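Hi D.,

Good news: the full-assembly prediction came through. Inputs first.
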Amino acid sequence: MSSFLIAGNWKMNTGPKEAAELAAGIRDGLSGTPASTKVVVCPPFLSVAAAVRELSTAPVDIGVQNLHFEESGAFTGEVSTDMVKEAGCSYAILGHSERREYFGETDELVAKKVKKTIDAGLNAILCVGEKLEERKSGSHEMVVEKQFTAVANHLKESDLDRLTIAYEPVWAIGTGETATPTQAQEVHAFIRGLLKSAFPNADAKSVHILYGGSMKPANAQELLSQPDVDGGLIGGASLKAASFCELVEIAETVAA
Ligand code: PEP
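Then the structure:
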């Protein structure tokens, strides 16, 4: 793996009109093709078409923030991998802490979604991360290991080509509180170790491990300079084209 991955999670923000404006701002703000950084944005479902349209000529991939593991049928309110692909997406964020917390997503459900996503030829961004009390009690590695293993048990080595992991300490998401670069590096190295033990014949270095949790232009350089931080999953700072494009530029500078 030679490049960073910078992914924007727009969450439940931007209807089609606003999403088109934000996507156009990102297209115009990425001056030329980023040399090495992979860029992904994940709008809400209803705004995917607008983002796909505006970014059709830009070096930016589009993703969704969730999907269902079944192909089709009586699953009111859900969206399948085929629909996501037909709409022009190539990524799916899965197991985000907000889905685990507010929508009751379990490790087993997340595992099914990741497996289906990869089998369908899409790229999965699997989110893992501990809550504040788990960090305080020192059980953060145990929590991350459990979340990771539940998914890894369902994957084979070749699936790693389509797997990205985002370490998102829940206490740092949308709070303005960021994990220190040392804290991030420790957990990223731990996750790299988990990948190595689960898939001994694969190249664990080839899997992007993103940091997520109040990453912004002011703290990105330090975080991205850590040896096992391969990019960022960005919430708040992805909602302004200028700050998102600046994050891509910082990634380019750190990679250079
Ligand atoms: C996220 O929701 O994935 C996230 C990292 O949000 P924020 O950057 O706002 O903390």
